[in-house]
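The instructor's notes for this session suggest beginning with a concrete chain rather than abstract definitions. Hand out the sequence below and ask the class to guess, before any prediction is shown, which regions might be ordered.
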Amino acid sequence: MRLPRTTKILGYEVSIRYKAKLGTIKDPSFGEYDPNTKTIYLVKGMQINRKKEVFIHEYLHAVQDVGCIKISHHGIELMSICMLQLLNDKKIKLWGG
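After discussion, reveal the predicted structure:
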């Protein structure tokens, strides 16, 4: 799955970048959203389904930020799982892959 380098959320441009690793040794992460730079970071080399799951999760954090809405982390997790299931069940492809 090849993601674009940028996407728009409510008119704001959000960058998508890759890093070798995120988080700490004790608390590693596969993705994160930086509200200061409006950037979604993903760890390089993830399997396709994991990459979809992490991207959707971080995208929802970006929506939360630019939309100034409050969603619990648990709520983001549930919505991410539901959106991934919809994409997989209906065989919807994100950006051609």
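Then share the key points. The helical segments are 48-66, 73-89. The CA atoms of residues 31 and 54 lie 6 Å apart.
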